[in-house]
Write a structure and sequence with these properties.
Blueprint: H1 8-15, E1 20-22, E2 28-30, E3 44-46, E4 52-57, H2 72-83, E5 98-105, E6 108-113, H3 137-146, E7 167-173, E8 177-182, E9 195-199, H4 204-213, H5 226-235, E10 240-253, H6 266-274, H7 278-286, H8 304-307, H9 318-326, E11 331-332, E12 338-339, E13 347-353, H10 358-373, E14 377-383, H11 391-395, E15 400-405, H12 412-416, H13 439-449, H14 454-470, E16 475-486, E17 490-491, E18 510-511
Parallel strand pairs: 13-14, 13-15
Antiparallel strand pairs: 1-2, 3-4, 4-6, 5-6, 7-8, 8-9, 10-15, 10-16, 11-12, 17-18
């Protein structure tokens, strides 16, 4: 499975291709398939009984690196592996909606769906951490049948890997490097670079040193911090930096028994947000290269223009924020802090994660400072490393939690729906961190995730965005960035996004 360590997704996609891949603009592109299914090309069909069907046509010259044709049987085998709950190889959420995977002929695969699923066009392809790259039936079926307990320990997954991508694995040395050589028979054309060596460098300062020395040409997987990347570019003639969004820093208000209880008051949450100069955060933390996160969808996403008008924004206005808190019965004391009618200090806990990203940690400190200056006491609390896996503790924070999060749009039910709230009934499992539960929002999410026509889907997404921003379900601070550095001699290198890697177009890279 890809994505188990920083950079593994990039390694997998150098050696393998799925039916499709998501490019640096978030748009699916065909790879081993001739086309990505859509309503327009007739390969995506909706039925009156609520089910649907997607059809893929495999390119006639698609084959594995050992010369074996890539066929629909490989995809049927991959589906069988994914259905095996003993393995949990991919864990792609879309498979729960699949009714059957059929191969009417070697170059055609038809997927029948129990209900509409908006991510169906990305099945058997690369979608960031959710990739389901096809498996070679001729190499793995026997091992799967005869010795399933050792299936995931086969040499196939490392030194004997066989893919169908632009490069084939020539050498793999654990904790050291891997060497890839161009696949002469890649369906989209032979890659322009004959051989690529990938070195495994975990420490980012060491990676920067290698770039400075000219020992490596490009950073893959985990990207450099913006400051570190800018330092490398300023010191290496011809070096280039490609920047793309990587996630969003949010403060998550607690909606289940919040402490102080006033946090459950919408006017108070709006006041908290208007008390923060988020543009100053953008300028000071990321040199003005990003923007305020008014919603959970990044402006780089293709559907952002369709939902932008639906966003309820809260501009920095400490005077208005103060008036709103005053209106809730609080008054400033001699020390400048707010107190209620009984003289109790208005204070809340702001929790951060010790393993969190650098930008998230800096934003936590800036947020705490802003609220203190606005008269709201803040108790900073860092999650101890030994409690990071304590699900109940993580879910039941009293005030707000600060964290960097990826793109919500692809998993709305889990991260914003009531079913995703971490509560005792589900063992505190769930991605809905603030535990906001609202039947109206659930209905909108259900509609969005089952609506295929894009214009109708974006209308529902706009309604979701409006409710989430109007009710201050999330307090977005700023969009974080990925910085990919490459030396000037490499051409056509793109940035890394949450749903794509720098190597999505590796067959087009070339050396100047």
């Amino acid at each position: 499975a890809t994505g188990s360590a920083p950079g593994m997704e990039a390694l997998a996609l150098m050696a393998h291709s799925g039916l499709s891949i998501v490019d640096s603009k978030g748009i699916p592109r065909a790879r081993l398939a001739e086309e990505v299914p859509s309503l327009e090309n007739g390969l995506w069909k909706l039925f009156s009984d609520g089910r649907m069907e997607t059809t893929w046509k495999i390119r006639p010259n698609a084959e594995w690196h050992d010369g074996t044709p890539f066929t629909s049987e490989d995809l049927r085998f991959t589906y069988a592996i994914e259905e095996d709950k003993d393995l949990v190889l991919f864990g792609h959420a879309a498979f729960r909606f699949v009714e059957s995977v059929n191969g009417p002929d070697p170059r055609t695969v038809t997927v029948r769906w129990k209900q509409p699923a908006i991510h169906a066009s990305l099945l058997f392809g690369s979608d960031g951490d959710r990739s389901v790259l096809p498996l070679p039936k001729h190499l793995l079926q026997r091992a799967y049948i005869e010795d399933k307990p050792t299936f995931l320990s086969l040499p196939y997954w490392t030194t004997e890997y066989v893919g169908a991508g632009p490069y084939r694995l020539s050498e793999w040395v654990a904790d050291s490097h891997a060497i890839f050589v161009a696949n002469d028979r890649y369906p989209l054309g032979r890659p322009k670079i004959d051989e690529i060596e990938v070195r495994f460098i975990r420490d980012l300062n060491t990676l920067a040193a290698n770039l400075l020395a000219g020992a490596v040409d490009v950073s893959l997987g985990r990207t450099l911090s913006l400051d570190l990347a800018e330092d490398v570019v300023s010191r290496v003639g011809g070096a280039k930096m490609v920047i793309g969004p990587s996630g969003t820093v949010f403060a998550y208000p607690q909606f289940v028994s919040p402490d102080p209880p006033i946090l459950g008051n919408l006017q108070f949450r709006r006041a908290l947000l208007q008390a923060v100069d988020r543009q100053q955060m953008v300028e000071s933390l990321l040199n003005g290269r990003t923007s305020i996160a008014h919603t959970f969808i990044s402006p780089s996403e293709p559907d952002y223009p369709a939902i932008e008008a639906s966003i309820v924004k809260y501009p920095y206005d400490p005077r208005v924020a103060g008036e709103m808190i005053d209106g809730l019965g609080y008054a400033r004391g001699a020390d400048g802090g707010y107190r209620d009618a009984a003289g109790q200090r208005l204070s809340l806990e702001l929790r951060g994660d010790a393993s969190g990203a650098e930008t998230s940690g800096q934003a936590t400190l800036a947020l705490a400072d802003a609220w203190k200056r606005a008269g709201v006491g803040v108790e900073l609390h860092t999650v101890p490393r030994q409690r990071q896996g304590d699900l109940e503790y993580r879910a039941t924070y009293p005030g707000l939690e600060m964290s960097s999060r990826g793109n919500y749009r692809w998993d709305l039910a889990r991260v914003l729906g009531s079913s995703g709230a971490a509560v005792p009934e589900n063992g505190f499992l769930g991605g809905n961190r603030g535990r906001y539960m609202n039947a109206g929002l659930d209905a909108l999410i259900d509609g969005y995730e089952s609506t295929i026509p894009l214009s109708q889907r974006n209308q529902l997404l706009g309604q979701i965005v409006r409710q989430v921003s109007d009710q201050v379900v999330l307090m977005g601070m700023l969009y974080t960035l990925e910085a990919t550095v490459h030396l000037g001699r490499l051409q056509n290198v793109d940035t890394k996004l949450e749903r794509s890697t720098q190597v999505w177009n590796v067959h087009e890279w070339e050396v100047q």
